[in-house]
Write a structure and sequence with these properties.
Cobalt-precorrin-4 Transmethylase, domain 1, five-stranded parallel β-sheet, 3 domains, Rossmann fold, single chain, four-stranded parallel β-sheet
Length: 320
């Protein structure tokens, strides 16, 4: 019995961004240079498959520094960034620390510090409780950063001095939703200072634009990513808002409910910035068991960004 035809529009760019590649490389290189165990505070990136793979190589993931035994094994901070108090505590305990914070997150941290030094009240657009937001707020004294999430929050915002106001944003937000919030801030506070270059990172923007380019052509969008991945969840939302009738976030092919996958003619497939390509291929293979699949690559633009490893881990540096 022949299988029904299905076209898969494979969106690009998708998957790993430069910050994620750097963070994973830091853990793997630290294991090569210093040996296991290497300790990592929180998930290095938001992807269980990646984290489990690093655990198998000798990485030990902890919630807080006090779980790490005394010794000279490295402790690595995740790509999302950490409050200043964390590296300060690591230094107090004489820990050898390696910072895997994405350089584009560090850019936001530095912006926040400059605004604070200039006497500005700082508005952070982001999602409460996200590690990146916790890390960014933690760069400055308590109360120096006010978090808002929605245009409604921006409408209700009360500030000390409208002439001394600046905003920064989480790097993994919806581009369009964030623009709506910024529009309210600029209308209410015309003197507000924003970033010279947008804080939402190139990878988040590119993946959302790629989804927009296919959203109206497909019956369903599948986003490969973790439920705690902000940029992955935004891709689901962007798909629906731009004309796709249905969008799902999935971690692995085993999560697919095939009773709900009947009668499809075309689907879109993408991956969040912390999801490896092997999981995308796993999804495609799963569909081949049920459909006669044709894969069409839809490439919006090419990415060639890369970030250097910390000096201690570069190949041209002698091991400690």
């Amino acid at each position: 019995m022949s299988k029904p035809a299905l076209k898969i529009l494979l969106a690009a760019p998708r998957g790993f961004c430069a910050g994620v590649v750097r963070a994973i490389d830091i853990v793997e290189r630290a294991l090569e240079v210093y040996g296991a165990p290497v300790y990592v505070r929180h998930e290095i990136v938001h992807n269980k498959f990646v984290v489990d793979g690093l655990k198998a190589k000798g990485a030990v993931f902890v919630k807080e520094l006090d779980e790490i035994p005394a010794g000279d094994h490295p402790v690595i901070f995740s790509a999302h960034g950490v409050p200043k108090a964390i590296p300060a505590e690591a230094q107090r305990r004489n820990m050898f620390q390696l910072d895997a914070t994405c350089p584009l997150v560090t850019k936001v941290h530095l912006e926040a510090q400059r605004h604070h030094e200039d006497g500005m009240e700082i508005i952070l657009i982001g999602h409460a409780g996200h590690p990146e937001v916790i890390g960014t707020k933690g760069q400055l004294p308590k109360g120096a950063v006010v978090l808002i999430e929605t245009p409604e929050d921006a409408e209700a915002l009360q500030v000390r001095d409208p002439s001394k106001l600046a905003y920064i944003t989480q790097t993994t937000l919806s581009v369009d939703d964030t623009a709506d919030v910024i529009a309210v801030l600029r209308r209410r506070f015309p003197m507000i200072r924003g970033p010279v270059k947008e804080d939402i990172c190139y990878a988040t923007t590119n993946r959302q634009e790629a989804v927009k380019s296919i959203a109206e052509q497909i019956d369903m969008l599948l986003v490969v990513g973790a439920p705690n991945s902000s940029n992955s969840k935004r891709l689901v939302e962007v798909g629906v808002k731009n004309g796709c009738p249905r969008a799902l976030l999935v971690q692995r092919a085993s999560e697919l409910n095939w009773d709900e996958m009947q009668g499809l003619r075309s689907i879109g497939l993408t991956a969040g910035a912390s999801a490896p390509e092997v999981l995308v291929n796993e999804i495609i293979d799963a569909f081949r068991a049920h459909y006669d699949v044709t894969v069409e690559k839809v490439t919006l633009r090419e990415e060639n960004v890369s970030f250097k490893l910390p000096r201690e881990l570069r190949q041209d540096q002698p091991a400690a």
